[in-house]
Structures are given as C-alpha cells and as structure tokens.
Hints:
It is a single chain. By secondary structure, the chain is mainly α. It folds into two domains: 2-124, Rossmann fold; 133-308, Dehydroquinate synthase-like, alpha domain, CATH 1.20.1090.10. The protein is 50% helix and 8% strand. It has twelve helices and six strands. The strands form two sheets. The chain has a three-stranded parallel sheet, covered by helices on one side. The radius of gyration is 19 Å and the shape is globular. It starts with 23 loop residues before the first helix and ends with a helix.
Amino acid sequence: LEQRIPLRGNDVLLYADVTYEPKTSQVDAIANDLKQQYDTISGIVGIGGGSTMDLAKAVSLMMNNPGSSADYQGWDLVQQPGVYKVGIPTLSGTGAEVSRTCVLTGPTRKLGMNSDFTPFDQIVLDPELAANAPANQRFYTGMDCYIHCIESLEGTFLNEFSKSYGEKALQLCQEVFLSNEPWGEKHDDKLMMASYAGGMSIAYSQVGVAHAVSYGLSYLLGTKHGIGNCIVMNHLEEYYPAGVAEFKQMVAHNNIDIPTGICAGLTDEQFDTMINVSLGMKPLWENALGKDWEQIMTREKLRALFEKL
C-alpha cells in the first residue's frame, strides 16, 4: 500500500501507532509537531481502520482549534473546522469514514469529539484495501457495524433517515455473516457498504447499551472497540433480545470465540472507574432507555452487568 501513495512537495507519511486506541495525548503530540514544522498544513489523509481514521479527524481539528483535544471531548464543543481531511478505510465496520465523532481516550474518560466539523470532507471506499484482513479482526470490526444497526433501529432517537440506512446496513451484515459461501470479494464489497450505511444511521440517531458499556471496558482495560462491543453484546438479551440471538448465531456460524471473564478479580475502585466512564455517555443511554434512563440503569445494575463480562 505504501508504494501506491504518491508523495509530492512537502507531503509526509506518518505511521499511526494503533496498538492502543487513539489517545488525546497522541493527537496533541502529532498536531503540535506538525504546527512546529509547517505552521499549518493543507490537508490530512487517514488510511486504515477506525482508530487511524479517528486519529486523522482529530489531528485535522486540532490544527485549527486551540488547547488540547481533551478540551473537546463531548458534544458540539469544537468551534472551528479543521484542515481538509480525507478518509480511506482498509477495514470495514466502524463507520468512522462517515461518523461525526472521533473517539479518544483522555485523562479522565473515553469520549469522542462529536461535532459537525468532525466528519471527513472526502472519503474513498475501495473494498480491495480490506481484502486481506484477518478473519477474527474482520469479524469483530464487522460486528461493530451490526451492533450500530441494532442500537440505532431499536433506539428512541430513531428517525426515517437513520432507519433507512440502518435497515440496509443490517441486511448487508446478515448477508455477509450468515453466508454459507467462503469469504470473497462479494463479502468485502457488501461489508464496506454496510459500514458506510451503518455509520450514516448512527450519525443521525445514536448508539446504545453495548457501546456505552464497552467504553468503560476500553478506558480501564484497554479492550479494543470491536472486541469490547462483542463481549458486551453477548450479555444484552434484556435490551436487544432478537439482536443478541442473531449476534450469537453469527458468532457460531463464523467460529469466533468471544472472550469471557475479563472483569474477574477487579477491585471496587476499578469497577467504579468503568461505571463512571460508562454513565458519562448520556446520549447513548437516553437513546437506548429513554429520558428516564438514570432510574433504569443504576450503578448497581451496571456493576452487575460488568461482573458478567
């Protein structure tokens, strides 16, 4: 892939460390280095999975906004558009190519820079770039898209716009992950379009319980987003009975092992940290459970859910 990127003029190729998901400190360091070296840049292209694309979006915004990216974790806090940004996914499912957020782990929480300035100005969708993804990684990331669909379609924020995209993405996920054919070009094509449509659906509605809980896991334990969503979704029959049943069917059909027992042995303080991060995702809970969500999802109930994971 590197050989297919034509560098011209002052173009610089940076390799993003995605061993862990993007951190505000990582965003700030890259943006500050670029400012010191070039003052400003004409644009940024993010090529990779969801973490790389989120990192590119965040750096773009921080080129034109003061302070730290941690200052903008939340909803509609970004005041200025970033530099021109392009997204090229090489892994399908996150919807980062069209979402209005870039999820970052900061000093006190895992939360995105949610704003109308966050989406890419341009995207390039080429399924061939995702053709050689490892099967497990492909599944976990693809399930991020499937869970987007379930949480959007069953949420209180649903509208006809998000519904139309969510239903199409769900159909494509079903065709891909319940297929009896060996994985091939057709599957990559469909999953890339499912990712796009699923991302459009949640951009105009919201995600729900699985994402809210997985943010707590990721913040404390460093659990990757796709795997974290799968670990949580495995225990959400109370909230998404039909979706969880089909999710488990997809897991079995694709011979995937979902990790268990990851919260065993955690201290009360660690559980409290995860609970605090998770409950901070207020729009997600409201979408999932309604305006009275705080009466429904108590700290005790959330603790019991974490203990199952």
